[in-house]
Amino acid sequence: GDCAKGILVIQELDFSQTRYFVDHRRVCVIGGHGGQGITSFHSEPRKEFGGPDGGNGGDGGHVILKADQQIKSLASVLPLYRGFDGERGRSKNCYGANGGYTYIKVPVGTLVKEDGKIVSDLTQHGEEYVAAYGGTGGKGNQFFLSNENRAPMTATLGESGQKRVLYLELKTMAHAGLVGFPNAGKSSLLRAISNAKPAVAPYPFTTLNPHVGIVHYQDYEQVAVADVPGIIRGAHLNRGLGLAFLKHIEHCRFLLFVVDLSVSEPWIQLQDLKYELEQYEEGLSKRPHAVIGNKMDLPQSKANLLLLKERVEQRVIPLSALTGDNLEELLLHLRDMYDAYVTTEQSRRQNPVKW
Ligand SMILES: Nc1nc2c(ncn2[C@@H]2O[C@H](COP(=O)(O)OP(=O)(O)OP(=O)(O)O)[C@@H](O)[C@H]2O)c(=O)[nH]1
Ligand SMILES: [Mg+2]
């Protein structure tokens, strides 16, 4: 019931490395170098000549991407990973140890791309993708022993590891995305409903990076809401902060359009926002969404709200991020949208994204 949906506590995610959410990264991965094989001959006291006993080098370690539910953003991924080298072989037919694997933990839902093509899609907790294979170890001279050659001097070097440049992209950045023009009050709203503390200021483009805040409900469900930088007319042509942010929006499961009701003809804002989304990706403006009429505390807003309601089909939630008025309605509706998302995913036999 509604009681269970009451809002308990609210907190901001702590991304230890950065204050903001990172949903794409370029990463260079190099597998470990194979260890070198060696040339050596068996020696024992009083025995002048023994057979070849130079061992093989160990294989270089792989660099492996691993999906981990605990990881929520790509912020902790470094630009370069080099795998562990294999050890060189030793005498007495001792093989060098293989290099251990290097794991890069990434969030569930990470797409891996190379030259613009998708090479992997890590959708399950624990799923792995070998990003760079380690090089094979070299052969020691015992390997070259044959009837023709009883005393081979040859040993080979290890191979170098695979080297690749990959682009990681997070498919889901949050459940809900706040979409609106600069100054509409998106960051103020995120501050009001979560403990996230994105900067708020009376000028456009205050927010330059997305922030994610978590809304906790009493039954322990958590809904992640992203504050995306403002978009403007022509964003799909890369104006303003442009395309990068339309991409963030693409990665949200449902949208909250934030309209500034103190501005005349607020429905134009809504039309423009939907137009930009649609130009960027067909169907994006039709994702499940709600319309939020913000700044209800300002004098012109009441009249504008009535006009807006006449002109849009979907429900409009009037509120004030500043005074906190009517946030409850938004939070309950947010939960309804989240529940609908979970049900849809389950009916498609998909795992809904949990925070
Ligand atoms: N009166 C009033 N002012 C508000 C309300 N919400 C936000 N503001 C003010 O509007 C201005 C912009 O708010 P922000 O939250 O920074 O807006 P934003 O949409 O995040 O802006 P960008 O990050 O630039 O896209 C600030 O001066 C806020 O104090 C509200 O409900 N009422
Ligand atoms: Mg902002």
Automatic annotation (TrEMBL):
Q: Where in the cell is it found?
A: Mitochondrion inner membrane
The answer on whether this UniProt entry bears the keyword Mitochondrion reads yes
Q: How does it sit in the membrane?
A: Peripheral membrane protein
The UniProt record lists the OBG-type G domain at: 174-339
The answer to keyword Hydrolase applying to this record is no
Q: Name one GO cellular component term.
A: mitochondrial inner membrane
Q: Which domain of life is it from?
A: Eukaryota
NCBIfam families cross-referenced by the UniProt entry:
Obg_CgtA (TIGR02729), PRK12299.1 (NF008956), small_GTP (TIGR00231)
Its protein name is: Mitochondrial ribosome-associated GTPase 2
Classification of source organism: Eukaryota, Metazoa, Chordata, Craniata, Vertebrata
